[in-house]
Structure formats: structure tokens, C-alpha cells
Amino acid sequence: MKVKTFLVGLNVVQFTALVSAVPHARRANSSGMTHAEEMFNTAIEWNDGFWDEDAGYLIAAASNDGRYDSRHSGWYATQLLARNGPGDVARAIRIFDNLISAQYLNPEWQWYGDWQGSPSQPLPGTPEYVDSIYNSWDPNIRDFVGFTKVESSLHVAAKGDLYRVGGVDGDNLYPCYSNPWLMRTILQNWVGTRLGDKNLTDASNKFAQEFYDLWSQHNTLSEFNSPTYAGVSMWALSLWSKYSSEDSLLKKYVPEILTTTWNDVSDLYNANLRNLAGPWDRTYGYNMKKYTSLVAAVIWGAVGRAHAPFPKQTSGMYHQDDFAFYPLFALSMPEMLKYLSEESKSKFITFPGEHFFTGQAYSPPFDTYPRNITTWMSENITIGAETVSESVVGGPAESTSAFSPAVIQWAINDYQVGCISHWVTESSIHAVASPGSLKLSYPNVTASDSPVSFNFLFSGFDIRHPSFNVTGLEGLPSLALKVETNAADDYTIVYDTDQSVNDFIFYNITYTMPEGFTEEPYISLQVV
After folding, report:
1. pLDDT tier at 466, thresholds 50, 70, 90
2. Does the N terminus or the C terminus of the chain have fewer Cβ atoms within 10 A?
């Protein structure tokens, strides 16, 4: 399933307020700029390089539905208004005109209020481009573009968003789909308040209450500990804080939710490895120092690039297209930082020492019971796991490449971080982390389900000394493991270079249960 995350737009007055606040965002770096200013300038200059003057769009920075990317162009337009340099406003208006002309305006269409993902896309629902949610059209795009000139366009987007009901017409937007749910809520509130549409403001309070009712069961985002989408959720919550109406439930609930989320992110961050420890409900990589994540934007804005889990070079970083989002994070950092305590902030700079994290997260209707999360954090090794029982394989997003319920990370050397991630093949997994240990089993699997296997992806060994070969989980660089399992002894190991899993190159190490097994499949990885 291809799912993109989009932006709630703000008007010129709001951007002016944000830009004026940026210089006051915490401690400046050695250049005299604040961390937010540094992030804004670095990222928007990167975006400048993708501008096509002839087309009036940004060229897509990654695989896309066409050569040009409407989502990133919309992000870029709002950033141009914030920068307000020579020619920026004219360029932004040109983008807005292009995107406005590409909005779907027929109320009878399910994609009413949506926009083309790329200007080359045909109309969805035609013989050459059949109706397919998240493929020929993406409902999240309604939350992405705000037009400074044409409020009616935002009004259409907000009304079209009300067409979305989880479980209806293939849509998966439930309160557990944290990041677009939070964005839709502020879209409804802001547009409804500004245009006097009570249906929208009432919807925003309903959505806020439904989200809070789920969140408060365990005080965690359902889309838990995602290196990308936890960042999007925090960004959306900062918009709740800044722009929701004073009498709304958004304004009431945001301090508790955003403060707690900051605390969770800091507790699960290892400043030595500069990575967010597992488990990850949705990830686009296995080492945050190699790919662009949006939690990295949050940390960069809080403590600076030097401490953030961000690639040293913007050239060659994996999942680079999300870097286009960073200037908008920079603009929101002053509001977001209001909810970051000094204790949590310090953990992004200095690892506080060995500790253990436990929690729960819940994603109905996909989870049959809340996911139990256990994470052990040490100086140079982290082990994270979550026990799950779900109706689908691959987490609520049904993505086996993104859902990582069992993860070990460690320092191979001063610059390489190794990662072992469990590749899911089952919907019910009992996974528990403890000091120096990761244990997995499949409680609902029998021999009739064969073949049954434990698959692990090892990545991070980017420079191999000629005298060293990876021979299995017990033969990894700088990590001594002991494997115990009732799977067959003859595991397989394959070096995979097709980059089909989040662009990363990895070893696939697989333990397969023998035919006719009678015991519950299990495997234990112990640091020795």
C-alpha cells in the first residue's frame, strides 16, 4: 500500500507569525543562526535545486506518479512565502495556480477536494486510470495544500475530507492512523473557524475527541515510535497548538499529548548511536544516519544538526524526498518546543545511561489487543520488541518492509551502526526485549502453516574488511550473539543488493521450522 503524508497549509499572515518566531527558537549554533533557521535554509536551498522553471513544479526527488511532484511543490510554495526572497512570492503564486487548476471539484467523486499527485496523472476512475485508493488517487493529499489566494479551495478540501470513513470504500483512516488523523482535525478546525462552517468545526471536535479517547488508553500514539510518522504527528500537534480555535478540544488536549510524545521520543533515542531504538511501527530504513526521517527534523530543530539522526551528506541519502518537508518543521519549531522539557531535551545530546522502556499502543480495528512494547537501552546496543496480535501481516499499514516489531541496533565502529530487523511473516508475534536479549515466538502457528520461518535482515556493514565475512547471526561484526531456536540448524544467508526494502542493502538470514513440528516456533538472540 502506497501511503503519503501531506501538509495542512497556512496563510500568509500565519507564515509571517511563524517566521518572526523562528529566531527565538532555543540556542543558536556556531553560525549565529538558530537550529530552526539552519534547518530551514539548508532544506529550502535543497528544494531550490529541483525547481523546473518551464513547468512551474518541483521535479520529483524520488519515485513518483510522474516527473513532477504536486505534494512537494505545495510544500515548496509555502516555504517560498516564508523566505520571501527575490522572486519567491511570484514563484509561489505560480505553483498555487498550477495546483488549484488540478483540484477535483465534482462532489460525486470519492476523491472530491483531492489534487493530482503529479500533473501528468489522468482522471481517476477512467478506463486508463482505474479508481484505486492510494494509487490513482491519495486521500491524504486533501490535508496538504493551503492556498493563500483561494480559501474556497481549502473549503472544498475540508468538505471532501469528510467523505473519509475507515473501512468504507477501501479507506483506512481510523483514529489509529495517527498522522493524517491529526492533520485532518486541524484542517477541519482552521477552515471551519475561518469560514464560519459549523459542520467543519463540529467535525474537528469530534475527531479530536475520538483521537484523545484512543490515545489516553495508553498515552501513546497508535502509530508508535515511527522514525517518520511520529515526526509528522508532532508537527500536526504543533499546528493544533498554534492555530486551533481557543474553545476547541484541540487546544484542550494538545499540551498533554505533545509533551508525552516528546518524552517518549527522548526515552527511546540513543544519542551515542544517533538512532531511535526499536520497535518501529513504520520505518523507511534501518539507520537514521543514512536516510531522511522526520523525527530527525524534530531533533534537529531542538538541539541542532550535530546531535540529530540525520545524514552527514544530503547527496546520496536514502528516502531523500522527505527532506522537502523540513522547512515546514523549522517554521513550527517555536511552537513545538514549548512542550519539550529540559530533561527530555538533554537526552538528545547525552545518552542518560542504561535504562528500560515499557509501554503499550493500540490500533483498532487491526489489533486484537494492545501491542506490548519492551526496549532495552545501553551505551552502544539497543534491543526493542513488541508483542502483536493483528488481523493483518505487516502492521496496520500492511507493510512488511515498514513494520519492524523486533530490532537490535549496535555500534559496529565509530561511524557504522548495525541493525538486525525481524522481517514479519505472521500476524501474531510474541516478541520481548530484556537486557542483552531478544526472544520471539509464533503462538498461533502450526505445522499446517508451513513453511514457517524467522527472517532477519542485517544491514549497516557498509565497509567490509577483506578478512571478515558475515556468516550468520553468530558471525556479525562487533556483536557477539548466541542463537537458540527450535528451527532447523541449516539456516540460509543471502546478500541482497536489489535495494527493494527501503533502498537498503542487507543480508537476509532465515531460520526455517522443520516439517511436522509440534512445538511453538521460537528463537532467542542473546548478547554474550
Report:
1. confident
2. C
Whether the ω angle into residue 279 lies within 30 degrees of 0, i.e. cis, is: yes
Sorted by where each begins, the domain ranges of the chain are 12-347, 355-527
Instruction: Give the separation between CA 315 and CA 525, rounded to whole angstroms.
Output: 36
Instruction: Write the CATH number of the domain with boundaries 12-347.
Output: 1.50.10
Between the CA of residue 119 and those of 43, 104, 115, 132, 293, what are the distances in Å?
Answer: 24, 12, 9, 18, 26
- Grade residue 24 by pLDDT with cuts at 50, 70 and 90: very low
CA distance linking residue 518 with residue 254, whole number of Å: 50
Asked if 340 contacts 262 with a C-beta cutoff of 8 angstroms, the reply is yes
Distance, CA of 517 to CA of 519 (rounded, Å): 6
**Residues in CB range of 127: below 8 A, 6 or more apart:** none
Amino acid at 54: D
406 vs 428: CA distance, rounded Å: 13
Cell (9 digits) for 160: 471532501
Residue 373 one-letter amino acid:
I
Stated as kind and residue range, the H or E segment containing 438 is strand 437-441
Report pLDDT digits (tens) over 319-371: 999 999 999 999 999 999 999 999 999 999 999 999 999 999 999 999 999 99
pTM of the model: 0.91
What HEC string does 304-350 produce? CHHHCCCCCCCCCCECHHHHHHHHHHHHHHHHHHHHCCHHHHHHCCC
Share of the chain above pLDDT 90, in %: 80
C-alpha radius of gyration, the chain, whole number: 23
Q: What is the Cα–Cα distance from 439 to 526, expressed in whole angstroms?
A: 8
Name 387's bridge partners: 372
Q: In sequence order, what are the residues at sequence separation of 6 or more whose Cβ sits closer than 8 angstroms to the Cβ of residue 277?
A: 268, 269, 270, 357, 375, 377, 382, 383, 384, 407, 409
Residue whose C-alpha cell reads 545530546 in the numeric block: 349
* Backbone φ and ψ of 109, nearest 5°: -85, 145
Within 10 Å of residue 448's Cβ, how many Cβ atoms? Answer: 7
Cβ atoms within 10 Å of 468's Cβ, excluding its own? 11
Tell me if residue 291 falls in helix, strand or coil.
strand
Cis peptide before 365 (omega within 30 of 0): yes
Cα end-to-end distance, the chain, whole Å: 39
pLDDT over 50 (residue 116): yes
Task: Summarize pLDDT for 237-253 with one digit per residue, the tens.
Answer: 999 999 999 999 999 99
